[in-house]
Amino acid sequence: MTTATIFVCTSCRRSLGEGEESFDQPGRGLVEAIEARLQGDGDRRITVTSVDCLAVCKRPCTIAFSAANKWTYLIGDLDPDSQVDEIVAAARSFAASDNGIVPWRERPASFRKGVIARVPPVKHEELQ
Amino acid sequence: MTTATIFVCTSCRRSLGEGEESFDQPGRGLVEAIEARLQGDGDRRITVTSVDCLAVCKRPCTIAFSAANKWTYLIGDLDPDSQVDEIVAAARSFAASDNGIVPWRERPASFRKGVIARVPPVKHEELQ
Question: What is the pTM of this model?
């Protein structure tokens, strides 16, 4: 069974006005929205996990797609209100891929524009 | 034996002047410099691996510290001429850590300032 984890950063702050205290943390809602979508679809291949900090900070919401023996992708600038469908679809493409590299044509706009970084899988021999 | 991999992006371009064609790719020299340092020290715990693209692009040189069951750290803005010692020392701290989180006091300045992102380890059950 192909599987993948969506890590969602719940720390990054989105400014809601001028004051320093005027912000929300949209990753929190995004975790719940993705979870609801996966449960609604009965999809147990994909797991969503909140993470205290992905250390990106400046591009909320930030998520990572991760799976054993695949490239990890970090994606930012995501909108929890409008892009849950895109995120779940991209995670499914990621889970179905051989190595984590999703073909360009399968990447939604948010994925094409929002990549922060990617990292190769840890070498196979280190997984033993 | 504690082990870790340093992935070094060899694609990112550093501007050397005004023209679009005036650039170098400092990651290439950084791979060689780290490799020479590790060999000189007889350190076989750390592996350095060049990567065609870590998709960060705007903060050369960019590297990642990676190991099984540890957080992955992406670090940018590194100077291949002056920071090889710091990078190797930080990689050793990373390799020696339980979970990839290096105590703040052990992080050289380049590591403290240059973090681009971090990602938790893939869940243990997915490594089986």
Answer: 0.90
Tens-digit pLDDT profile for residues A16-66: 888 878 888 888 899 999 999 999 999 999 999 999 999 998 888 999 999
Would you state the torsion angle of the CA atoms of residues A68, A71, A72, A75, taken in this order, to the nearest 10 degrees? -150
* CA-based nearest residue to B55, from A105, A74, A79, A66: A74
Strands B4-9 and B23-24: unpaired
- Partner residues linked to B75 by β-bridges: B63, B115
Q: Best interface-test mutation with A: which of B119, B126, B127 has the largest number of A CBs within 10 A?
A: B119
Q: Nearest chain B Cα to A71, which residue?
A: B54
3-state secondary structure B92-115: HHHHHCCCCCCCHHHCCHHHHHHE
pLDDT tens digits, residue range B21-59? 888 888 889 999 999 999 999 999 999 999 999 999 888
